[in-house]
């Protein structure tokens, strides 16, 4: 096993399968990762890309859950709606046949458009429903948003059903096939200095970085960000200083919802997630895990936890691809294992803030 | 404060309530006993219109085991205030234990054990699992407790979808497991009833016994399969016994400590109770009955898959049922499921009949049904896509309305009206404060 | 025109009846002390004015405008500042951010910061530190600074000397005295000497009502008129 330096994952798989098939965990396989810098680099880049996706799905939640104490179970449904809106738009415009530049242009417009649409939807929900329950025990917030979530999910099934029947596409099912939405240039992998990089990865990493920068800027450099941080610590004092906490929370909820939707646009292209109704729950649970592992009330914690989970996920996926482990959903198992281990070792998560998420 | 004064705290005048509860119990049991007869009668008499508004007995079976599961959820979440957000863990353990135990896939256990033995052993295993989870989880509270239990159930869910060990025959574990599949293992014939008394045992399942207590139900029921009715009574009796056992515990000194924990755990500790072990005990009991519910499902259905056992939404809908019926009312969640299933069946026919859609299909004029809304979509097709299989849409809306307008649930509202409970006591202090900081405030 | 006027205010915490008909007024240019033992409802009076614990009955008027029923932030916007017991810093925010949070939306931020740092130079030195890391006295200064930059027409000051060393108490007293030149103050203070030094008038509260009032010049620290309501 010496000629692995230039390998894409596929050839690694082939050569390893020949060498150590049937052994559940062979030391030789793992050491490969560390003796081959390019292999390590592609796993690292994939890890960053995954981290970006995790960050995007968790960032909206960390705002509403970590800061406002609103445990938003409809978060995943917002993401799913974002994915469907984007998917439908892409199908309508026909991105698949466009060139690289224009398809990325459409994509950027979509991210902005979906963010705005779902932020508006968030405002409607916050003002009409969520706001009624701030005075209630927080369990009611879980219940309310869970109810909203199952309604939204099933409504989407009805809409898709209706649309399929109406357009004679009965065979399509619930999901929008990824092949119809991803521009060709981004579908394959390309090599840079022998490092195999998925076409989408740089794109995802860029968006992840932009998300972190945007939220950091919002929280630390804007007046609303200041209000949010003040209100989180002591909402009575904030109100007594003239801060309209209600409106601040509406803004935060809108941003959280918009981010959830924008994440959906990104996930539309990810081979693991794609546009479908189960996306809602599939996104929700990992997002919760990341927020908890990072620590409630800490945006920094969410970023670190995303990177941690993304890297481990990439490693696990690599291990699966080279057949070190034979377990399809190893990434999902891993996420919840991280949650449990973290809660055992450090109940407040990596950067948890005293008093948040507790009963007192 | 002395323990005596603590005892008088949590349940005011519970003796009076106990009597009232028992009068109600009799009524409720009578309702459930008469239901299949009434269904048969009404459907025989009124045909489609009765089928439209009445829950099918097959669905009533689901109400029974899911209702038991939701009760076990309420037992820990409602009464101690610790939200067991991964309660599906225990439902799944109970269900899978019956299958794997019967198939002889578990260490130390011979295959083909009687169903009831497996049911009880599965409950015990679940209780042990609850203690293991509790050792970690009860060091935490609030949303962290909820999340760690959820984490455990999700791990088991993923494992159940992937472990080839579960399906030695080579089928995909995510498609589920079936008792009696390995060669050399006899067909699964689950018997439920009074142990050691043959006459009081029946085989449950869609192809199980059709006679009960020596009476052949076949000729009596025209609209329903007699096997369903026999299973309904056998499982119903088991659920009733389980309910009475849980209710007895709630009304015992042990149960009063549970309620004291939900209202103010620090005070319960200050009085001298070791709340940790009370919580563990309550969690184990709750897990036992949760697992029994899962085992009953397998008993009837002869099959289980991860989606219907370890999956997060199994807990989710128990929570929905518990809220609709009323948290901290124990039996309320069963009524919650009854209501929920009724709404779903009425507005969203699943597969084999019942509900509003067939009624409309038959009674609306053809000219209307065939009218085109747009493109290839007719009224008939629109009805079909809105009213078939989308029960969760309506359940979700109703649930949201409940949370906003009937937050204490159906039974909770009744009990408030009849004054056996106060609103402040209704929502556990601990559950209420979930995720928030202390609500104590200065003057 | 009376600046602040409470008329028959009744306030409850859950089922306990804390304020049982409070009447008091504060005029422009005054410092008024609200005296009384712990738990008689002084802080609740402040919370009622701020609508943090809205009164069930009675009226609270500020410049003849009714406050009851408004949101707390509207009360604050109307020009009522609160310097609460325990300071209530945003401890995870920096000193400067604490001040920024208190500045009204349409006011000049640089003027506000200049005012705060001029009044309390120590805050300027520590502008980027977490407020939670300040000493008790510095926190009290920051709390007063937040009140000053809020463009307020009255300050409700609750136990400003609590938990502070005597030397610091003097500083805080001086700061309040200089604040009082530009803005009226309603003051709750356990240290009777300090309260009487600062205030022009006083009210004495007991069991949720006002039981005595007068000019501070009429009474001394050992006056029986005050002692009977203040000693434990």
From TrEMBL, chain A:
Keywords attached to this Swiss-Prot or TrEMBL record, sorted alphabetically, are: Amino-acid transport, Cell membrane, Membrane, Transmembrane, Transmembrane helix, Transport
Membrane topology, record value: Multi-pass membrane protein
Q: Please state where this protein is localized.
A: Cell membrane
Instruction: Extract the InterPro entries matched here.
Output: ABC_transp_permease (IPR001851), BCAA_transport_permease (IPR052157)
Tell me where the transmembrane regions lie: 52-74, 81-100, 106-127, 139-160, 200-219, 249-269, 275-296, 303-321, 333-351
Biological process annotations from GO = amino acid transport
Any single GO CC term annotated in Swiss-Prot or TrEMBL for this entry: plasma membrane
Query: In the UniProt record, does the keyword Ion transport occur?
Result: no
Q: Which family does it belong to?
A: Belongs to the binding-protein-dependent transport system permease family. LivHM subfamily.
The protein's name in its UniProt record: Branched-chain amino acid ABC transporter permease
Automatic annotation (TrEMBL), chain B:
Subcellular location field: Cell membrane
Protein topology in the membrane: Multi-pass membrane protein
The residues that cross the membrane are: 23-48, 60-79, 85-103, 115-137, 226-246, 276-298, 310-340, 393-414
Per UniProt, what is one Pfam family of this protein? BPD_transp_2
What InterPro entries would the database entry show?
A: ABC_transp_permease (IPR001851), LivM-like (IPR043428)
> CDD domains in the record, alphabetically?
TM_PBP1_LivM_like
User: What keywords were assigned to this record?
Assistant: Cell membrane, Membrane, Transmembrane, Transmembrane helix
GO CC annotation = plasma membrane
Q: What is this protein called?
A: Branched-chain amino acid ABC transporter permease
UniProtKB/TrEMBL annotation, chain C:
Q: What Gene3D superfamilies does UniProt report for this protein, alphabetically?
A: P-loop containing nucleotide triphosphate hydrolases
Residue stretches making up the ABC transporter domain? 4-232
UniProt keyword terms in alphabetical order: Amino-acid transport, ATP-binding, Nucleotide-binding, Transport
Concerning SMART domains, the annotation shows: AAA
MF-aspect GO terms? ATP binding
Q: Does the keyword Transport apply?
A: yes
Q: Which family does it belong to?
A: Belongs to the ABC transporter superfamily.
Put simply, this protein is called ABC transporter ATP-binding protein
């Amino acid at each position: 096993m010496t000629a692995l330096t230039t390998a894409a994952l596929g050839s690694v798989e082939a050569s390893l399968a020949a060498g150590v098939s049937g052994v559940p965990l062979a030391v030789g396989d793992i050491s490969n990762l560390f003796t081959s810098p390019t292999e390590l680099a592609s796993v690292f880049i994939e890890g960053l890309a995954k981290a970006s996706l995790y960050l995007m799905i968790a960032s909206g939640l960390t705002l509403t859950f970590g800061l406002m104490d609103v445990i938003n179970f409809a978060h995943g449904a917002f993401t799913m709606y974002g994915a469907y809106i984007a998917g439908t738009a892409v199908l309508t415009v026909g991105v698949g046949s466009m060139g690289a530049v224009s398809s990325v242009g459409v994509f950027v417009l979509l991210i902005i458009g979906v963010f705005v649409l779902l932020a508006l939807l968030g405002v409607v929900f916050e003002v009409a429903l969520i706001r009624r329950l701030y005075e209630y025990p927080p369990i009611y917030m879980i219940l309310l948003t869970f109810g909203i979530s199952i309604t939204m999910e099933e409504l989407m099934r009805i809409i898709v059903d209706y649309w399929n029947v109406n357009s004679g596409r009965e065979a399509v099912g619930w999901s929008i096939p990824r092949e119809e939405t991803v521009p060709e240039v981004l579908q394959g992998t390309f090599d840079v200095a022998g490092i195999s990089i998925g076409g989408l990865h740089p794109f995802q990493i860029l968006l992840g970085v932009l998300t972190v920068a945007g939220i950091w800027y919002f929280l630390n450099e804007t007046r609303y960000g200041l209000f949010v941080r003040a209100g989180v610590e002591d909402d009575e004092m904030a109100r007594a200083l003239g801060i309209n906490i209600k409106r601040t929370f509406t803004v935060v909820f809108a941003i959280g919802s918009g981010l959830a939707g924008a994440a959906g646009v990104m996930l539309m292209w990810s081979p693991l997630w794609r546009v479908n109704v189960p996306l809602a729950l599939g996104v929700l649970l990992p997002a919760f895990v990341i927020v908890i592992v990072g620590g409630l009330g800490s945006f920094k914690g969410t970023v670190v936890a995303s990177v941690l989970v993304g890297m481990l996920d990439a490693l696990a996926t690599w291990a699966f691809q080279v057949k070190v482990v034979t377990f399809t959903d190893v990434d999902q198992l891993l996420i919840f294992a991280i949650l449990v281990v973290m809660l055992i070792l450090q109940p407040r998560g990596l950067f948890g803030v005293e008093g948040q998420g507790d009963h007192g | 404060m002395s323990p005596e004064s603590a005892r008088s705290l949590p349940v005011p005048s519970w003796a009076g309530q106990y009597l009232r509860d028992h009068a109600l119990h009799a009524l409720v049991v009578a309702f459930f006993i008469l239901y299949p007869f009434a269904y048969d009668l009404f459907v025989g008499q009124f045909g489609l219109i009765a089928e439209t508004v009445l829950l099918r007995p097959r669905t009533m079976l689901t109400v029974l085991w899911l209702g038991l599961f939701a009760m076990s959820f309420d037992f820990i979440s409602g009464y101690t205030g610790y939200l067991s957000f991964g309660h599906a863990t225990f439902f799944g353990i109970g269900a899978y234990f019956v299958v794997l135990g019967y198939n002889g896939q578990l260490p130390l256990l011979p295959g083909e054990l009687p169903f009831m033995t497996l049911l009880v052993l599965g409950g015990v295993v679940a209780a042990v699992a609850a203690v293991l989870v509790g050792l970690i989880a009860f060091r935490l509270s609030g949303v962290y407790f909820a999340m760690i239990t959820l984490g455990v159930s999700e791990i088991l869910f993923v494992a159940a979808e992937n472990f080839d060990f579960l399906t030695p025959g080579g089928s995909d574990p995510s498609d589920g497991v079936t008792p009696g599949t390995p060669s050399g293992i006899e067909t699964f014939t689950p018997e439920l009833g009074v142990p050691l008394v043959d006459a009081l045992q029946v085989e449950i399942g869609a192809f199980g016994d059709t006679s009960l207590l020596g009476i052949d139900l076949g000729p009596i029921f025209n609209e329903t399969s007699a096997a369903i009715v026999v299973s309904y009574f056998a499982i119903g009796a088991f659920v009733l016994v389980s309910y009475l056992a849980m209710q007895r515990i709630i009304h015992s000194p042990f149960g009063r400590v549970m309620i004291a924990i939900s209202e103010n755990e620090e005070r319960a500790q200050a009085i001298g109770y070791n709340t940790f072990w009370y919580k563990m005990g309550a969690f184990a009991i709750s897990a036992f009955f949760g697992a029994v519910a899962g085992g009953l499902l397998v008993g009837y259905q002869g099959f289980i898959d991860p989606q219907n056992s370890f999956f997060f939404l199994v807990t989710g809908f128990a929570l929905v049922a518990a809220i609709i019926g009323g948290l901290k009312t124990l039996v309320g969640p069963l009524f919650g499921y009854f209501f929920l299933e009724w709404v779903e069946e009425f507005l969203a026919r699943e597969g084999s009949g019942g509900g509003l859609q067939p009624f409309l299909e038959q009674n609306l004029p053809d000219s209307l049904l065939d009218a085109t809304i747009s493109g290839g979509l007719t009224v008939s097709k629109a009805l079909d896509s809105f009213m078939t299989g989308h029960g969760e849409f309506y359940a979700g809306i109703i649930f949201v309305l409940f949370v906003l307008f009937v937050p204490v649930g159906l039974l909770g509202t009744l009990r408030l009206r009849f004054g056996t409970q106060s609103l402040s006591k209704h929502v556990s202090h601990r559950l209420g404060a979930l995720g928030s900081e202390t609500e104590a405030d200065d003057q | 025109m009376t600046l602040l006027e409470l008329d028959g205010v009744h306030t409850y915490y859950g089922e306990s009846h804390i304020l049982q008909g409070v009447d008091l007024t504060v005029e422009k240019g005054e410092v008024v002390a609200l005296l009384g033992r712990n738990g008689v409802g002084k802080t609740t009076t402040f919370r009622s004015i701020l609508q943090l614990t809205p009164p069930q009955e009675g009226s609270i008027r500020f410049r003849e405008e009714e406050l009851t029923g408004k949101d707390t932030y509207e009360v604050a916007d109307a020009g009522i500042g609160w310097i609460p017991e325990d300071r209530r810093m945003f401890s995870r925010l920096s000193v400067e951010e604490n001040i920024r949070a208190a500045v009204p939306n349409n006011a000049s931020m640089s003027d506000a910061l200049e005012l705060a740092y001029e009044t309390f130079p120590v805050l300027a030195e520590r502008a980027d530190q977490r407020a939670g890391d300040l000493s008790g006295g510095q926190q009290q200064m920051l709390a007063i600074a937040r009140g000053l930059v809020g463009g307020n027409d009255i300050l409700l000051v609750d136990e400003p000397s609590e938990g502070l060393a005597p030397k610091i108490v003097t500083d805080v007293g001086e700061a309040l005295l200089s604040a009082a030149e530009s803005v009226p103050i309603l003051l709750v203070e356990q240290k009777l000497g300090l309260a009487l030094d600062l205030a022009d008038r006083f009210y004495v509260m007991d069991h949720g009502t006002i039981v005595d009032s007068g000019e501070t010049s009429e009474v001394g620290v050992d006056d029986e008129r005050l002692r009977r309501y203040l000693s434990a």
